């Protein structure tokens, strides 16, 4: 057994080296206008340096140092492939708006989430799937569900925060976002099915960013098996939703799965999305909606613990809304539009600590950009923090200043939600759940960070030390207990 595992590991290591050596012997000459930089050692390149930096929370510094050395367009080698690293608003426009670039996710992601997910699609397929998802995620639809999200947030705070002297924020925020997705997007009632999906999802996340080595006892194998369990739940949910639609027992507006199952292509009347596409993109929604929103709200809580002026302004904004509402009355869509300052705080948090560090694209053809050529087949890598922390784009970028979002940021300068045709379909959904959650949190609690060391790491999402334990003060109640790290 041990010998077979060793042989498999050796094969996994040597195969890329052999392939690289063979392909470099026959590769056509590279263009003369390649960007400056260095490809480093074969296969290894700069991968280990970047991974070490991300795990030690110096990833942003690593990419800024690289840009300082080689400029806003440079070449390097990441994860076994020659890569062009691009930064700045013009580069972001290229990344998010060019049909000459295709998405290129880590190999493990399509194997776990499914090959027909929106992160993998290009051209007409991408526009078709995104358009279908927007039928449910557009503002006109989401305004109907503010009360549902309000009820989920209130239930969560009553069950997980009220009466506690201390809590750990990140896992609770992940629990909350999962519950909102399960209720609103999947239409799953609380019970065994929903609990089974939660367990499968948690196991799946452990191997999402692992080496795609399908061997016993690896994180990737565990994630694949968990993905299969999650898919079975979603496939059964899809069958049930479709049957209820056909019997007239439900509406396409009930949840995202029902909406996608009901859509038909114009002219032919055929199902707009295949069952595989519906399930694959439900998996993406589960991962993206769970991680990004929970990280955003966690870091908002982290920042507000040390910024009483910003917290006071948020409280004042929310109290103005609350004074016109009866006790226990749910928030409305109009209430959310009054939370302008709170959303600016959220945007500034995303600017300084974007959940997504960066991602890759693949050049489908030779591309000329900024005087250089990006060869066909090469990776294109972008990192949002370089633009977000550029003093030429955002004045005093190290300063937390929500007022910078009183006016719309220049095009393609703020890219926490992507941009152009690749703008996140769930941006409005994230706004609603963030505003509703922060409204209830700041009106019910005050908090203090337990850990003296206020740091975070990326793996690959930013995660604060120990999940951000905080002491809670319940407004109008007894003081919190004393804890420390």
UniProtKB/TrEMBL annotation:
**CDD domains xrefs:** CYP90-like
Q: Which GO terms describe its biological process?
A: sterol metabolic process
Q: Which residues bind heme?
A: 424
Q: Which GO terms describe its molecular function?
A: heme binding; iron ion binding; monooxygenase activity; oxidoreductase activity, acting on paired donors, with incorporation or reduction of molecular oxygen
**Record's superkingdom?**
Eukaryota
Q: Which family does it belong to?
A: Belongs to the cytochrome P450 family.
Query: Could you tell me which Pfam families the record lists for this protein?
Result: p450
Q: List keywords of the entry alphabetically.
A: Heme, Iron, Metal-binding, Monooxygenase, Oxidoreductase
Q: Could you tell me what this protein is called?
A: Cytochrome P450 716B1
Cofactor needs: heme
